[in-house]
Design goal:
By secondary structure, the chain is mostly helical. It has one domain. The chain is about 60% helix and about 5% strand. It contains 4 helices and 2 strands; from the N terminus they run E-H-H-E-H-H. A two-stranded parallel ribbon has the order 1-2. The longest helix has 21 residues. It is globular. It starts with a strand and ends in an 18-residue tail after the last helix.
Length: about 90
């Protein structure tokens, strides 16, 4: 599936800031979930809302605060899409 160019740039920037030992698994999990999110929206490309939703779905609690910080540093406006939502991250 194709990506919105700006979203992909932000995503790559964020992934590059994740500790090396978590980077690959995070990238795989988020890309997979973002694709599923886009398909659920019946979209033809992955957009910011899909990536943000994927991060909030797949990030375990111990990494939640780091994820928030990295989303903000990478210019992802998660609040625009109503995140965080109660009970939206793994414990």
């Amino acid at each position: 599936m194709t990506w919105d160019t700006k979203t992909q740039e932000k995503f790559k920037s964020m992934i590059s800031k994740i500790p090396i030992f978590h980077r690959h698994i995070t990238e795989e999990a988020v890309v997979k979930q973002a694709q599923e999110n886009a398909l659920l929206r019946k979209a033809d490309k992955i957009e910011e809302v899909d990536v943000i939703g994927a991060f909030f779905t797949d990030v375990p609690s111990p990494f939640y605060s780091m994820m928030i910080r990295l989303l903000e540093q990478s210019s992802f406006d998660y609040k625009k899409y109503g995140f965080p939502k109660n009970g939206n991250h793994k414990k």
